[in-house]
Automatic annotation (TrEMBL):
Listed transmembrane segments: 32-60, 80-101, 121-139, 159-179, 215-234, 295-318
GO molecular function annotations of the record: endopeptidase activity
InterPro entries: Rce1/LyrA-like_dom
Organism: Kribbella caucasensis
Name the UniProt record assigns to this protein: Membrane protease YdiL (CAAX protease family)
Taxonomic lineage from the root: Bacteria, Bacillati, Actinomycetota, Actinomycetes, Propionibacteriales
Length: 335
C-alpha cells in the first residue's frame, strides 16, 4: 500500500519566511485561489459580526438598530470602534485556515518559520516597540519646536475626562486592539508577503540577465513593496501620511522577513494603535477615531530615525536570542 500523504506539508528546511507557502504542493493557482477565498471570507465574517452585533444591540437596548450615519452604524463612538476592532480581529483565524485548506501547509506558518506564534519573542519585541514610541514622541516635540509652522495637525483638544469616564473605553481598547493589530499583520505581512513570495522563480539560467532577474525576484523585496502598497491603499491617508504609512509597512515587512515571523510587527503595530486610541479616549476625543487624512512632512521626518532605532533594536535582540529565520532552524532559546 502507498503511504497516506499528510494533510499539511511544511516548506523544505532552510526556507525563508517569505517563501514558506512554496511547499511541495505549491502550484501557481494556490496563492490566487487562497487570496480570493480570503477576500470572500473577510466579507462573510465581517457581515456576520455586524449582524450578530446588531441583534445583541437590539436585545440589550430593547429597540431597533438605528439607521447608519455615514460610516457609523451605532450612535455611540465606543461601540462603533469596538465593532470595527472585532470585525478585523476575526480575520486572523481566517488567514490561518486559508493557508491550511488551500495551500496545504501548517496553518500557523503565516505566523513564523516555526509554524507557530513565538510568544516569548513577541513579548520581547514590545521593548523596542516602546522605544520607538518614546523616540518618536521626543523627535516630534523637537520638530514642533524647530518648525512651528510646518502644518502640524492639531492634536487632542480635550482635557482629562476622569477615571470613571476613561476606564470603560480603556478596557475595550486594551482588550481588542492587540487582536485587531495582529489580524492586520496576518493579512499584510503574513498572507500577502508569502503569497507573492511563493512566485519566486526557481532554477538557473546561462543568460546573465535572466539569472540576475531571478536572483532579485527571489529576494523578499518585491513582496515587501507590493504588500506595503496594498497596505497604504487599504487606509485613507493622503500626502505625507501616505509616505509615512508606506514606510511603516516596509519596516514591518523587513523585520518580519529578517526575524522569520510577524511577532515584531505585531508588537509595534499593537503598541502604536493602543497609544493612538487611548490618548483620544483620555481626552474625550474618541469621536474622531476613524479620521485619517493627511499629515505634515515632519511626521515622516521624525518617523525615519524612530523606525531605524526600532529595526536595529529588533535585529540586535533577534541575534542575541538566536531567533529562527528560516524553516527547521531551531534556536537555542525557543524565541
Amino acid at each position: 500500500m502507498r503511504p497516506v500523504e499528510p494533510r499539511t506539508i511544511p516548506a523544505p528546511p532552510g526556507t525563508p519566511y517569505h517563501q514558506l507557502a512554496r511547499n511541495a504542493k505549491h502550484t501557481w493557482w494556490r496563492p490566487l485561489v487562497g487570496t480570493a477565498m480570503l477576500a470572500a471570507a473577510a466579507i462573510f465574517l465581517t457581515a456576520a459580526v455586524v449582524i450578530a452585533w446588531a441583534i445583541v444591540h437590539a436585545m440589550f437596548t430593547g429597540g431597533e438598530v438605528p439607521e447608519p450615519q455615514g460610516n457609523d452604524i451605532f450612535p455611540n463612538d465606543l461601540e462603533n470602534l469596538a465593532l470595527t476592532l472585532v470585525m478585523l480581529a476575526v480575520l486572523s483565524p481566517a488567514v490561518a485556515l486559508t493557508a491550511w485548506v488551500v495551500q496545504r501547509r501548517p496553518a500557523w506558518s503565516v505566523a513564523s518559520v516555526l509554524n507557530r506564534i513565538r510568544w516569548r519573542w513577541l513579548l520581547l519585541c514590545c521593548l523596542p516597540a516602546a522605544g520607538y514610541l518614546a523616540v518618536s514622541y521626543v523627535l516630534q516635540l523637537l520638530a514642533d519646536a524647530l518648525f512651528p509652522n510646518a502644518g502640524t495637525e492639531p492634536g487632542a483638544t480635550g482635557s482629562w475626562v476622569g477615571f470613571a469616564a476613561f476606564i470603560g473605553p480603556a478596557l475595550v481598547i486594551v482588550l481588542l486592539v492587540p487582536f485587531q493589530s495582529a489580524a492586520e499583520e496576518f493579512m499584510f505581512r503574513g498572507w500577502l508577503i508569502q503569497a507573492i513570495g511563493a512566485y519566486a522563480p526557481q532554477g538557473t539560467s546561462n543568460n546573465a540577465f535572466i539569472r540576475t532577474a531571478r536572483l532579485v525576484l527571489r529576494t523578499p523585496w518585491p513582496a515587501l513593496v507590493i504588500s506595503s502598497a496594498v497596505f497604504v491603499a487599504a487606509h485613507g491617508y493622503t500626502g505625507w501620511a501616505m509616505a509615512d504609512i508606506f514606510l511603516f509597512a516596509m519596516v514591518m515587512g523587513y523585520v518580519t522577513v529578517r526575524t522569520g515571523g510577524i511577532e515584531a510587527a505585531i508588537a509595534l503595530h499593537a503598541l502604536n494603535n493602543l497609544l493612538a486610541f487611548l490618548l483620544p479616549a483620555a481626552t474625550g476625543d474618541l469621536d474622531g477615531w476613524a479620521d485619517q487624512g493627511g499629515a505634515p512632512w515632519t511626521l515622516l521626518a521624525t518617523d525615519i530615525p524612530s523606525m531605524a532605532v526600532f529595526t536595529l533594536a529588533v535585529l540586535w535582540l533577534a541575534k542575541r536570542q538566536r531567533v529562527a529565520r528560516v524553516s527547521a532552524e531551531v534556536p537555542a532559546e525557543h524565541g
